[in-house]
């Protein structure tokens, strides 16, 4: 995952952003933003599909086969999967907190009220 992070930082963050949401500096300067790597579509892609996109490009994304070794492309996928897991955990925690907040009864008036 560490090597994947390093490669992701160098090659992917300009477009996909640090968190993988598609909000990198290239997109901020008017280039069409790439899809979020945290979106359901990306989460549901098989690792081989992601490897194919990294190797051959897709849409506005060029091939990275000549710049990123085969082994490092797999490590980037591993890192992206770790981003997706972290995002899923955050979403679950926020949902649980929201559910807990809804189930807490209204607090009684404080002393002297």
Number of strands: 0
> What composes the largest sheet?
none
Run of helices and strands: HHHHHH
Q: Please state the average pLDDT score.
A: 91
Structural class: mainly alpha
The shape, in one word, is elongated
Protein architecture, described:
The chain is 59% helix and 0% strand. The chain is mostly helical. The longest helix has 34 residues, at 70-103. The model has no long low-confidence stretch (mean pLDDT 91).
Question: Outline of this structure?
Answer:
It contains 6 helices and no strands. With 113 residues, it is mainly α. α1 crosses α6 (70-103) and α5 packs across α6.
Characteristic terms for this protein:
single chain; 113 residues; mainly alpha; elongated
Write the layout of secondary structure elements.
Layout: H1 2-11, H2 13-16, H3 25-28, H4 40-44, H5 47-56, H6 70-103
Helix pairs in contact: 1-6, 5-6
């Amino acid at each position: 995952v560490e090597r994947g992070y390093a490669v992701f930082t160098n090659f992917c963050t300009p477009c996909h952003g640090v968190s993988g949401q598609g909000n990198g500096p290239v997109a901020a300067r008017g280039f069409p933003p790439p899809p979020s790597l945290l979106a359901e579509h990306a989460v549901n892609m098989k690792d081989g599909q992601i490897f194919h996109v990294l190797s051959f490009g897709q849409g506005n994304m060029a091939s990275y086969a000549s710049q990123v070794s085969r082994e490092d492309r797999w490590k980037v996928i591993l890192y992206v999967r770790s981003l997706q897991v972290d995002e899923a955990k955050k979403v679950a925690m926020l949902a649980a907190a929201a559910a807990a907040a809804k189930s807490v009864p209204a607090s009684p008036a404080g002393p002297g009220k």
